[in-house]
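We read letters as residues; the integers encode the fold. Take this protein.
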Amino acid sequence: MGELFNLDRAAISRAVRDVRPLLDQHRHIITPSTARFRTPSDVAAFLAEGHDIARTEIKQAC
């Protein structure tokens, strides 16, 4: 994922660490994916097979 967004591993780890308490606070549980991607090509191949990312409406904070 870092390669897709031009981020290093530390930036992704910090984002996960920062977001996890917010998810816990709102009792939102994310089921871990079983898909594993090592390269951007792996992501493209996964999506080309017909897999789609679930679209969820983003709620307003206020």
